[in-house]
Each structure stands twice: as C-alpha cells, then as structure tokens.
Specification:
single chain, 460 residues, alpha/beta, Aspartate Aminotransferase, domain 1, Aspartate Aminotransferase, domain 2, 2 domains, seven-stranded mixed β-sheet, three-stranded antiparallel β-sheet, 40% helix, globular
C-alpha cells in the first residue's frame, strides 16, 4: 500500500468489539423481516455497519478519560463551560446553545428564523433539515451548482452554491421573503462534496447586499476544511483550525451534529452571533432540549464532544479519515463500479441508476441495492434516493432526485483498510450479477421521514 496516498491509522487499538458474519440464509431472513429496509436490521446481524457515521465513532482515550470528570449539575456544569469556550475558540461564534444532536439545533433555528411562506435557499436538501424548515412554514429551494446533480462529473468543490441563481431568486422573491441561506459544509446527499472558501466569500457578499442571513450546517466542517487545505490555492500552509475559523467568519451562525466531526456518540449545538436570535433560542431550548447549559447532553457528553472537536482538527486524524474513504472509492472505481464522483469526505455513494439500469426509479433501485448488498456480505448501507426524498406535500407524488444512491458511510476510527477491501469485493461481486436485484414496493409508508421506518416487499 502507498502510505503517502493512504496513510496508516494514526492511532493504536486498545479496545475491540467482536463481530461475526451470520449465514446468507440468516441474512435473507433478516432483511425480509426488516421489510428490506436496512434501518430495521439488528446491529448484531451486521458484519460491517456502514449505515451512518452519525454517533457510530470510536472515542479516544482522552475522551473516555474526560467522561470520568463529568459534572452532572443541572445548571452551570463545568463541562458546559469547557464546551462553550471550545466552540467559541474553534468556530468563532459569539453565542452557543447546546442540543442533544444536530436535529435539535435544526428545530430551534427553523422555529426562530423562519416565518410561514418564506423561502430557505440551500446547497441541496438534507432530509431532517428540510423537514424542520417545512414544518415551520418554510419553502426549500435548491441553489447548489448544477454539476452536483450528475454523479459522473469529477470536479472539485461540487458542493458550491450557484451564486447567480441565489441572487436571481432573492431578486425574484424579495429579500424580505428569504428566511436565510442554508449552506452545508460538506453536502451530504451530493456525495459528501465540499464547498470552497471562495464560494463562501461570494455567498456572504451577495447575502450582505440584500440583508439576508447565512447559516451553515457545520456537521462535517472539519472534512470540508481538509478539502480546502488540499485543493484550494492559498490554504496549503493553513491549519485545519485556521481554515475552520475563516469558514465560519462568513456565516451568521451554524447548526451542528457533534456525532460526526465531533467524534462522539451524542450531542450537538446551535451557534449564533445575533443577540436577539440567541435570546429566542435559549427560550426554545428549554422547551425541547433542556437547560441552556446542557441542552439534552450529560456533563460527560459535553466533555467528550469538546475534546473530540479538538482532536478532529489535528491534521493526522483528518488526513487519514478522508483518505480511508477515498481508498474505498478508488478500489470501486478501478473495478468499474459506478459511484458518485469525486469521492467525498464521509462516504462512498454507489450510483444506483447505473448499478441497476434495469430498475426504474419508482421501483426503488437504491433501496433494492442496499438490501442486496446486505444479503451479499452482511454490509449495512443506506438508501439516499427517491425513498429518502419523500413526497410532495401538495401533490402526494414522489420527489424524484436526480441522484439515486446507496451511501457507504465510514464511521470514524472504527474500521481498517481490510474492512474497506471486504466492502469493495462485495460490491464488485454484486455488480457482476446486478440483474438479480429485484424491484421493491411499499408495504408500510410513514408520512414523514419515511426512509427511517418504512417497510417494503419484492414487487412481482
């Protein structure tokens, strides 16, 4: 292996969790019982679990040690003081509101910043984010660059906002009708694609011109910072911390799930610069999350997340994290497996349209492919296509995203390159008999965020 291209794990393994591969017959029975939805599978029945990188990370010895000094005071915990100061130092925001995870922060921001009928402009939707925006009367409009919707285009910073489109919509709708711009760094459903610093500056310039606020989804901001350091001119000698600090200087605030780049199992925050919005957020957090000094987290959780963010900004850590994901993507590309290009920071996305050309989008090719991959090798992945996109609230018709993908999401500090090899071999083997992958139909469809709990059966 070329260790400059794929660096070895920058850690030693101290604790292990045994896993086992159940038989193919047992996997067939398990996926059928789960309604062909990988979310409904039991964790113990999954050999390599790539469902998500959210809360599935391995914490360091420093984080575990930090949990031993958890101050579980209902108010004023010393761990909250440490977390608040850490976020202010690393991200540069004036105010911080803790939440149990990113979803809690999305709920609070949407509640305080959206008036019914206003538009939220974003660089591609994310499922829970859009749900909270629409639940509070917002209308989501996608302003990501057009290339992001094409899995075959390999260009840097595919998550950039189309600034001309952004300005055109602001002019058309009127600045007073724009709640805010939601800028995700990186863009999950586009394949974990990063946003350039140049684009962030341009977005800020247009937003200031019309008096529109810009809020980031900072969930994978450290990964985004790595791509800037690696690929954007003028940042090669900057530290990850310096890059992150500049990134957020172009925003008015951010929601963040600490379960990703915070390298923990629970926790998140909402950061804001505006004093009035901060006052409203503190009122809402008490109703939905807990006190403004813990927000649904225990003291030990807050200590772990603060340490996790500091560790995440160490170059050796983030270099290995991104390049381990890239290793899997490179192996699949070399074998001719269709994936979303370029490979992003947290996952490799199989392009289900090209993987399963015999299936129409209404036959749920990504859902079928995810189920088939589990049966093939006990690898749990996630559908990110028509099922995740949901239905139009007015017409009841399925949203049909241009990207129909299966996300192979790599938890942080959990798996080795050998595990990536097993995943790659399973995808390659499955691709050779892809015509055997069957279409699916709904047998149970919840009204909201259906991909989490829906059940399917083979469509005859």
């Amino acid at each position: 292996m070329d260790f400059s291209k794929y660096p070895a794990e920058p850690f030693k393994i101290k604790v292990v969790e045994p896993v086992k591969m159940i038989s193919k017959e047992e996997r067939i029975a398990a996926i059928k019982e789960a309604g062909y939805n990988t979310f409904n599978l039991k964790s113990e029945d999954c050999y390599i679990d790539l469902l998500t990188d959210s809360g599935t990370n391995a914490m360091s010895d420093s984080q575990w040690a930090g949990m031993m000094i958890g101050d579980e005071a209902y108010a004023g915990s010393k761990n909250w003081v440490f977390l608040e100061s850490t976020i202010k130092e690393l991200f540069g925001f004036k105010h911080v509101v803790p939440t149990h995870q990113g979803r809690g922060a999305e709920n609070i921001l949407s509640t305080i910043a959206i008036k019914p009928g206003q538009y939220v402009l974003g660089n591609m939707y994310f499922t829970t984010t859009r749900y909270h925006q629409e639940r509070n009367g917002g209308i989501f409009m996608d302003i990501i660059r057009q290339e992001a919707h094409d899995a075959t285009i390999d260009i840097p910073f595919k998550g950039d906002i189309d600034v001309e489109k952004m300005e055109s919509i602001i002019k058309e709708k009127g600045p007073e009708n724009i709640a805010y711009v939601c800028l995700a760094v990186t863009v999950n459903l586009a394949g974990g694609q990063p946003v350039s610093m140049k684009n962030m500056r341009e977005v800020r310039k247009v937003a200031d011109k019309y008096g529109v606020k810009v809020f980031y989804d900072a969930t994978r901001c450290v990964e985004n910072a790595y791509f800037i350091k690696e690929q954007e001119e003028g940042y090669q000698d900057k530290t990850i911390k310096e890059i992150c600090h500049e990134m957020f200087s172009y925003s008015d605030g951010a929601t963040c799930s600490g379960k990703k780049d915070g390298i923990v199992n629970i926790g998140g925050f909402l950061a804001i610069n505006d004093d009035e919005l901060f006052g409203k957020a503190k009122e809402i957090v008490v109703v939905f999350e807990g006190m403004p000094s813990y927000g649904g987290m225990s003291g030990r959780d807050m200590q772990a997340i603060a340490i996790g963010f500091r560790e995440a900004m160490q170059f050796e850590y983030i270099e290995h994290r991104v390049k381990q994901v890239r290793y899997l993507g490179d192996r699949l590309k070399e074998a001719g497996i269709p994936i979303v290009e370029p490979v992003g920071g947290h996952a490799v996305f199989l392009d289900a349209r090209r993987f399963c050309p015999h299936l129409d989008q209404e036959q749920f090719p990504a859902q079928s492919l995810a189920a088939a991959l589990y049966v093939e090798a006990g690898v749990r992945s996630m559908e990110r296509g028509i099922v995740s996109a949901g239905r139009d609230a007015k017409t009841g018709e399925n949203h049909k995203p241009k990207l129909e993908t299966v996300r192979l999401t790599i938890p942080r500090r959990v798996y080795t390159y050998a595990h990536m090899d097993i995943v790659a071999e399973a995808c390659i083997k499955l691709f050779k008999h892809k015509e055997d992958i069957k279409p699916l139909k709904f047998v149970y469809e919840p009204k909201q965020l259906r991909f989490f709990t829906a059940k399917f059966d083979i469509a005859e």
